[in-house]
């Protein structure tokens, strides 16, 4: 039996933080948050049917404390001290970020403040208290010239201010607290909650007859709820390994195996994304195709036109960030380490994860309209 774990999440109103809260809630862990909609038992069952691993991501005794930007500004060290005193966490998950990729080009100061200085302050405080830090980073740290999915050993070479600020954040976290910090890079996140490409497309399909979408940038769209399960599994495994205790078999987590030939600086670094990759255009097409099978979600047939990044830039007056042409991530390391079984949606193709999210969204919408 593992000792209870108290987890503090920054950026608590954001997309990934809300997914963590949902998954913790489904595991019957205690969720403390100012903004989080608890769901009914039948919706819980629906998500368990789609992604069975949600059930045992945490245990009943574990606690998740979500702190919104208003409650904790990660760039304010006094506010961090105050939050640590109030929550007394065993683990911090840093979901706070400056994510406006284009705006970062003209406001690099804000991007570096939130994506570099904030994580550094958090790491310093975690180090002082011996707290584990899980820091989330992005596929945009890569230049996009590789012809296969990036793994943890590949050299980052960001093209944009956002990518540079995220890489600087990773490096700061590593420098301050090498042994008890884990960096998880992910990509193209979407969920039922929050701002993301799937929601943008859903709105455009409902409002427009035609939408142009970039067809020469490739990546791995990732369901935020799947990432949340991976994060909790990793925390449970690391805690069990560090505390040197056995795991409750019902949690279905392997004790951390020894990794041969994997002891370089990428040791505490993990990539997680859905399998395979697509362009934003193919992603948009798949969203529309899956939605068209359900007439409640979409009523018109909007035409999707492929365009190049150059044409997209030409239509915009704002300075746009350079994005990698190919930034798919290879999740083999984390999936192998956590013993994710074959056939699980956690290591499935992006199309299957998208279907899982849209099925879940359908169920939530049906319940809301009752
Ligand atoms: N979204 C994506 O496609 C991807 C995201 N990532 C990474 O995943 C992580 C989570 O992203 P996601 O949940 O999608 O992002 P969101 O933008 O949904 O959430 C980020 C949250 O951070 C908060 N925040 C901003 N500045 C601060 C601050 N100084 N102190 C505390 N909170 C702050 C924001 O609050 P407010 O809005 O009130 O400012 C917001 O609630 C980030 O690290 C991101 O870089 C990686 C790859 C892809
Ligand atoms: C709205 C829209 C966007 N696009 C393009 C622009 C852009 O290249 C791509 C995605 O646009 P978005 O604004 O959703 O997201 P973008 O900022 O490119 O997404 C990135 O966000 C950061 C935070 C990450 O870390 C990355 O992994 C990635 O998810 O789609 C179109 O081609 N047509 C459209 O109608």
**Domains counted in the coordinates: how many?**
1
Q: What percent strand? A: 5-15%
Alpha-carbon Rg, integer: 20 Å
CA-to-CA gap between the ends? 41 Å
Small molecules (ligands, ions, cofactors) in the structure: NADPH dihydro-nicotinamide-adenine-dinucleotide phosphate, dtdp-4-keto-L-rhamnose
The residue-averaged pLDDT reads 89
The topology string of helices and strands comes to EHEHEHEHHEHEEHEEEHEEHEHHH
What's the architecture in CATH terms? 3-Layer(aba) Sandwich
- Please bin the fraction of helical residues: 40-55%
Number of H/I helices = 12
Which outline best applies? globular
For CATH, the homologous superfamily is named as NAD(P)-binding Rossmann-like Domain
Number of strands: 13
Tell me the major beta sheet.
Answer: 7 strands, parallel
Kindly name the structural category.
Answer: alpha/beta
GO biological process, one term: O antigen biosynthetic process
Function: Catalyzes the reduction of dTDP-6-deoxy-L-lyxo-4-hexulose to yield dTDP-L-rhamnose.
Organism: Shewanella piezotolerans (strain WP3 / JCM 13877)
Domain RmlD-like substrate binding: 6-242, 266-359
